[in-house]
From TrEMBL:
Residues 282-297 have a biased composition (Low complexity). Residues 326-617 form the Protein kinase domain. Residues 275-344, 568-595 are annotated as: Disordered. This is Protein kinase domain-containing protein. PANTHER family: SERINE/THREONINE-PROTEIN KINASE YRZF-RELATED, SERINE_THREONINE-PROTEIN KINASE YRZF-RELATED. It comes from Fusarium ambrosium. It comes from the Eukaryota. One of its GO terms (molecular function) is protein kinase activity. Residues 323-337 have a biased composition (Polar residues). Gene3D superfamilies: Transferase(Phosphotransferase) domain 1. Residues 304-318, 573-582 have a biased composition (Basic and acidic residues). The lineage of its organism: Eukaryota, Fungi, Dikarya, Ascomycota, Pezizomycotina.
Amino acid sequence: MGNRMSLRPVANEKTLEYFLDISVMDPVRAIVRQLKLVEEVGRAFQIGDGVIFKNSPHALSDGADEVVERETQDLATSVQTPDHRTDLNKLRPDQICVYRSDNTLTPRHSMVYVCEYKPPHKLTAAQLRFGLRSMDIYKEVMSRPTIPTSMDPLTRFRHHAEKLTASAITQTYHYMIESGLEYGLLTTGQAIVFLKIDWDKPETLYYHLAEPDSEVSAHPDDIDICSAVGQYLAFTLMALNSPEERRGNRQEERRGATEKLKTWTEDFESILASMSEDDRSASSASLKSSSAFSRASQPTTYEGIDRTPKRAGREPSDAPKTLGTTNTEQSTGQGTRRSQRLAQKRGQYCTQKCLLGMARGDLVDPKCPNVALHCKSRDPARVRHPVNHDEWLRLLRKQLEQSLDDGVRPLDEGGARGALFQVTLLAYGYTFISKGTVRAFIKDLEHEAAVYERLKPIQGVHVPVFLGAIDLRSMNKIYYYDHRVYVVHMTFLSWGGCRIDTADDMNRPLEDEATRSLRAMHQEGVVHKDVRLPNMLFNSEIKGVMVIDFERALLLEPPQRPLAQLVPRKRARESEGMDVKKVTGGSSKRQRAHGGFSEDIHLAKIAFWEWNARRGK
């Protein structure tokens, strides 16, 4: 493999990605896969079902193609001042997100660290050696005046190395903060900078510079530990076993840290472009002749460090160095610890009848699993809901303003337009679904809300109950759902049910139930246009199928009532001609609508046929 890799020099980010995947990520994946088979090791390091190295963006990420395309379209028609994420050409940093797979039966996974890479011709090992030191980045780099032209070559090189290194590190640190991560790393293929955040002091970033090639040469007895694979593996196991990673979402901690930390608007590529070739290079004659440069540019090999594995925790002398990103401030972590500990017990979802009754101001559903929380000490037999729909929404907004952690749990499910959450209104125990989306797709969810309004007569029977929506931007909040996935709009619905493929014990064929729901939807003048198995759920409460996801649905003109009873008999003849014109003029629309209805039914038949074929039925 070494000979094969040597034929492909690292010329750009894509080549480096290929190199890392083949030579480092694959071996680490394979080793972790074997370690998880050892029960004691798997449990000790919280390995779960192994690790996933993912370099493709989430469908809702601001780097995903469809999101970028939509944002670009919106920007072209907008006259508003763009925010910090609007420069779409700069939103594709080269990163790999590392996740733990939590379960073999579900797609659930949790991010444990982010890996960002820069090719070695853009960020050299020498620049990292000179650029990394304990410092206050804001004071010593960001606020530093323009470099004087009279500066000697060594000082000039150090100046540019610190600025370039700090910008690269800050970019990784930024995504660590947004993702609520304790660990992250920056690599050039030749050198690795391992990073750590203590969330009790998130303004301080710890680092460790590793140069595996030089370390292997200096420590021939510890090749397995010093190699890139060995160091990545150790770092991965540390991240998997991180107490910080197991603490939860920490949305409020992330928000608090983001609000307090200073920002650096100049990015890595623009800094690199502003540097001359001499400023970038460590091979100029004036630098080579400098004895100080020769001493400082030697590879880091950590001579004298005892690399014998220890069972005890790391001793203070081994602690990584720090990069202070701002002046030390009061920790943001303490304020949310209590709310983390007091997070609600996650119960069952409220029934359709319960939430429909709340929305309509009717009686509570005695069969709702959360009825005791709704009624407090009252008898639920003939009791109305404790709040009306408007008050319910007001309380929910107030709860979200206070915390995006308490009562909100991401479900690691969703589609191309939204991510799903389980939400509980803590004041009265109402538990339901939220569909959150990013700025680019808010219009899609607003359209879906309009469809649910049309489908109000069949809510709770053929489609979920629509409970309203809240824009988090109105409270200056973002839910950091996944890497670069910024949820700012939340729609609330009753729980539709479980996946069709988990409900094959029905006496009546599920296809018939799905057809019933689709026809009921058609009666209200709605064409779904995206009928697939994932958009149909089995609901045990109604013993039928609920249709979901109406972002692409077509709203037809509502059917008109017969005019015969409304028009006086003496004017019937006058109106007849007008009515005929309406019918004639609308015939093509009705034909297209009928075609849309037929297509929905046809797509449902195909979906069930394919599902039955997979099951061998």
